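Hi Q.,

Before the meeting this afternoon, I wanted you to have the NAP prediction in hand. No need to reply - just skim if you have a minute. The sequence and ligand are here:
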Amino acid sequence: MADKKIIAVVGATGAQGGGLARAILADKSSEFKVRALTRNVNSDKAQALADAGAEVVAGDVDDTASLVKAFNGAYGVFVVTFFWEHFSTEKEKLHAKNMAEAAKQAGVKHVIWSSLDDTKKWIPLSDNRMPTLQEKYKVPHFDAKGEANKFFLETGVPTTILNTVFYWENFVYFGQGPKKGPDGKITFSIPMADKKLPSMASEDIGKCAYSIFKAGDEYKGKTIGIAGGHLTGKQFAESFSKAFGEEVTYSPVTPDVYRGFGFPGADDMGNMYQFKAEFEEDYCNSRSIDLAKKLNPDLLSFDKWLEQNKSKIPLE
Ligand SMILES: NC(=O)c1ccc[n+]([C@@H]2O[C@H](COP(=O)([O-])OP(=O)(O)OC[C@H]3O[C@@H](n4cnc5c(N)ncnc54)[C@H](OP(=O)(O)O)[C@@H]3O)[C@@H](O)[C@H]2O)c1
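Predicted structure with the ligand bound:
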């Protein structure tokens, strides 16, 4: 154990980082060990990681000194930001900058930065097909991550930019799943028309990240994207129907209608879906199912994930 290399994991009590931490902890012959960062070392989730064998340390992405301390001695760090905690592009970029700076100061050998695309490269602010948000963005939670890539590149720390996708867990926790109407019929609505949405189980992002660390130099300095499936709304609905044993109808709305739903972030999400639909080919091509399978041979298909999780999807 003593000579195992340390992987420091930001967001270890969350979805992506948790997946990575669990993947390393489950591999008893791993060359790596987990250092889990959390703002609260006493939380149940932090305790569960400690019980499973992780070193749990304090770290806050707002506080660079805490990150340097937590990254010191680590071979690798997995870093992710938490847009939906604050909805602020400025905070997201600052947090990424803090983590890049801390990785440099701590002298880590490999950073995996969980990122998304700067959609302004496809849709400049002057393009009125979708509203400009927060004055400088089309899809704020994408664009800020894409803009933040530069902080990692500027530090010179060997970095893998890992472009992720929509989690299937959004059907469980974020109200994105199928819903039963007053007539008892179940419909599934996303503003993707007949276009494919790259997506995956969030746990598999962590498993792929583990494999990227295990691959040594292979993915350092590279930008890669992964997915568990590229599915149309109709295909999602067919899988839901099979899993629930009850018909689920795909009923797409327009991005405009979606932006008008009014929940926090509806405009950002509406623009996101519109971007993915209008640039389907580029977006799908940048999120490889084959690469995800190569990194994680146990990669879940949507049907397999649904088999394991259908009882958790709230239909009401
Ligand atoms: N939902 C999707 O479909 C999707 C798809 C692709 C990308 N993303 C992106 O994924 C990111 C979130 O990652 P996730 O889903 O893995 O996170 P998550 O499950 O929401 O995890 C949140 C964890 O982040 C930690 N955290 C929050 N604020 C922190 C801070 N100031 N300092 C240190 N840790 C902090 C918390 O840990 P403690 O409470 O223990 O400190 C918490 O357990 C977002 O930026 C989102 O845009 C989401």
